[in-house]
């Protein structure tokens, strides 16, 4: 749901007017996603290691492999893709035209690898790697300060609100120049603006049994309080936008008064999660769908700007009313992204693009993949060449990758034709 919220937010930014109060009243709550991501990261990591030892080197090696490889891959891809969209092959040729251009390109790529600036959503991976870097220390502190976690949360929340207050105002003189100014300018891609949510996730997992029991016991009052908080935030949003505050500022993810709604939404989702946990039927269709969605979610997050940028110019005509534009653009973006990720998961480059090993070739149907690949390439070519729709190139390229992957799968299956294997659901 959180990844779906990210895509919806980005779609709405692309197809609705920046001055639309109606759109802003939805977008302001979708901004919870970045905080939800980091709270979930802290929760999952702590839950895994709260009752066992953590060896930092081994932890870093595993985590940075699963997130670092996709980060580097997508950074390089979006760096090239962005320049190609601006000026085609001529722009890419200019990158290596002379020594100065090459040096400039290397510096630009280096900057993007540090900041996640190659595409607007990659900051998440940069911050996540910072969390992984500091997590062994965070876990050690939490284990050694048992009984003081509530005070740590209170202090962390005070720092969070104070920092958010400063971030939406002109910088203090100390942060206006020099190294401090550089840090302040790039504060959004550091761990600091999200530290409370990370710590809250860690503490909730550290006290999982007590926290889970509390949420289940007080679930409905908690949901009521969350709804009231969201409603109050919406009323305040409508008030300030009607008295002169721009929609862009009112939806700023760092406005302190919005943080309460973000916390409320995260808590609501956790409450719904406890309901699902109690009523879940292992092996049921909803259970399988959620498992598959979880497996693909990271890849979908990484790839959705590609689908959005390729499809948006044509899938949401400006003449359409706002709501149909958003719904159709969202549906098409999700469909396009899922197609890309399904192909990546079946390809040899799955690990470096989705953070997961390729779906076992024994579980793949090479013949079906070839048919889908041919249809995608033909449809993409017609769409791009006949109708001049740029998104067609995306489907043609994705279909070509699927065809290559299917041929490799067929080769593996032919080489092992004397061994029995059956197609497994994925």
Automatic annotation (TrEMBL):
Residues 5-340 form the Acyltransferase domain. GO terms for cellular component: plasma membrane. Belongs to the acyltransferase 3 family. It is a multi-pass membrane protein. GO terms for molecular function: O-acetyltransferase activity. Pfam families: Acyl_transf_3. GO terms for biological process: enterobacterial common antigen biosynthetic process. This is Putative acyltransferase. The chain crosses the membrane at residues 7-26, 62-81, 120-141, 153-172, 184-208, 220-239, 259-277, 298-320, 326-344, 365-384, 390-411.
């Amino acid at each position: 749901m959180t990844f779906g919220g990210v895509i919806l937010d980005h779609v709405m930014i692309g197809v609705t007017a920046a001055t639309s109060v109606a759109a802003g009243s939805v977008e302001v709550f979708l901004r919870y996603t970045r905080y939800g991501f980091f709270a979930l990261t802290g929760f999952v990591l702590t839950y895994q290691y709260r009752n066992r030892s953590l060896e930092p080197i081994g932890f870093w090696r595993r985590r940075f492999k699963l997130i670092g490889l996709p980060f580097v891959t997508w950074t390089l891809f979006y760096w090239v893709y962005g320049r190609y969209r601006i000026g085609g092959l001529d722009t890419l040729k200019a990158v290596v035209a002379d020594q100065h251009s090459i040096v400039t390109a290397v510096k630009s790529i280096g900057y993007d690898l540090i900041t996640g600036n190659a595409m607007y959503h990659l900051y998440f991976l940069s911050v996540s790697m910072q969390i992984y870097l500091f997590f062994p220390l965070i876990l050690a502190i939490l284990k050694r300060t048992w009984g003081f976690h509530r005070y740590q949360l209170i202090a962390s929340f005070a720092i969070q609100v104070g920092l958010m207050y400063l971030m939406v105002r002109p910088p203090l003189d100390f942060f206006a120049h020099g190294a401090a100014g550089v840090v302040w300018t790039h504060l959004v891609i550091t761990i600091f603006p999200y530290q409370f949510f990370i710590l809250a996730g860690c503490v909730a997992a550290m006290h999982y049994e007590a926290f889970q029991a509390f949420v289940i016991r007080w679930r409905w009052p908690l949901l009521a309080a969350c709804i009231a908080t969201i409603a109050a935030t919406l009323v305040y949003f409508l008030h300030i936008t009607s008295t002169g505050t721009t929609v862009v500022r009112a939806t700023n993810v760092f406005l302190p008064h919005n943080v309460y709604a973000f916390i409320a939404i995260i808590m609501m989702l956790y409450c719904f999660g406890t309901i699902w946990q109690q009523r879940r039927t292992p092996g049921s269709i909803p259970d399988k769908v959620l498992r598959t969605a979880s497996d693909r979610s990271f890849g979908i997050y990484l790839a959705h700007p590609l689908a959005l940028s390729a499809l948006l110019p044509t899938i949401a005509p400006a003449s359409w009313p706002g709501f149909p534009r958003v719904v159709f653009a969202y549906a098409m973006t999700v469909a396009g992204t899922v197609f890309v990720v399904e192909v990546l998961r079946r390809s040899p480059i799955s690990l470096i693009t989705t953070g997961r090993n390729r779906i076992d070739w024994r579980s793949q149907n090479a013949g079906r993949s070839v048919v889908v690949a041919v249809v995608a390439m033909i449809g993409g070519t017609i769409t791009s060449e006949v109708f001049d729709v740029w998104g067609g190139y995306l489907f043609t390229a994705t279909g070509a990758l699927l065809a290559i992957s299917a041929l490799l799968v067929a080769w593996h299956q032919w080489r092992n034709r004397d061994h029995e294997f059956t197609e497994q659901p994925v």
